[in-house]
Structures are given as C-alpha cells and as structure tokens.
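Task card 7
Instruction: Convert sequence to structure tokens.
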Amino acid sequence: MITPSDKEYTETKQIMLGQKTMEPEFVPLTAWIDKTYDVKVINIIYDTFYKDNPRVQICFEFEKEKNKFLTKETSYFNKNKQNAIAEKFKELIKAQSLEDKYQTDNIFVIYGAFEPIAKDEVGSQISKEQQDEFIKSFHNEDIWTISMFFTVPTFFMYTDAKVKAYDKPETKKVWADRFYDLIKPFDEFNYFKREDIRVYLDSKENFDKNYNSNWYYYYK
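Output:
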C-alpha cells in the first residue's frame, strides 16, 4: 500500500469497513503474528511481483505497528522477523494443503500501514471547487491559495511581507480550526484529531522566485 488508488489499499479498506473479509487461509498466520509480536494484522495480501518471486504483504492499521518490523540499518527490514514470518507462512500453507495455490519458497515479506494512506485519501477527496470555496470563505485578499500535501495545509500569501504579518500563533490556530472543519466530514475512520492539525505559511513570491512557479519543484 502506497497510495489510495492501490488495489491493496482498496481491498484493506473494504475489510476495515466490514464489506469484505480477509482470505480465510491467511487467518492462522494473522493470529500467529498478532500473538508473537503483540500487534493487530488487518489484512494479508499475497502476490508475485516477478515470475517465481512470491510476496506477502502484512497490513497493519497503524504506522507504529509496522515500525516494529523495520530497522534503521541499511536492509530496512528486520531480517529475523521477515524470515520468521516467511517460514510460518510456508508451514501454514503446507498444513492447509494449499501448495498448488501459493508459492512458498523465497517468500519476500513486506509491510503496510492503513492509517497514513487513509489520511492521504481524505485530502484527495476534497475537490478543486471545494478548495476554492474554502479560500473564498476567508474573505482575505492577502491569501493567494492553499496547497495541501499529505493533508498538511500551506497557506500561500502573495508576498513574503504578508507571511511575516500573518505568521502568528493566534492566526494559525484559527486557520487550523477551519481547515479541520473542512476535512473532518471526509474522515471515515476518525483518524484526524484537531490537536494534530498544523498549518504552514509561505508566499507566491517565494514560489515564483525559488521554485519557478512549479509545484513539482516545490514538493520535490
């Protein structure tokens, strides 16, 4: 799972909404991972990303659960946990006589977290028209636009001088309150909390001068 359009995310979302269930043959592995590592697996996805290269994605709800299986070392994944899950997958598939359905040698184990992508989806559901109406509702001619990147709003003033004028805690709090009110109706899983919302300020002057008026360069 990387983006809201990924089929892995769509399938996991259906499970979270109670519209679908996990493949039954993966339930024993889910129970083992939950008990062994004190986490809660919400979905397991099997696929092959190259011929004869099977992959198993373990999907958690929260990033903090996924992080239990990562490392700061170069390999990124905790190899011991990765190998243990791969061996258990092989054992449980064999126990269910499903070797014809799933390849079990050289399994590559990866991980996903649902919450961060669900929060990204909230931002993607807000249309350009809704964003424009939101900007207009401020009745403030000093605001050029509002850019949302991974649901983090940046209020763009026209000039650097206006950024300095508005960069005050009380102003940013009011704007954060209003942004929270904008996105909350799209928050199906109640992941957004008001205290987590932070707004940033920048200027069209800076955007034009230092990023060639290009959003790709700005967020690169």
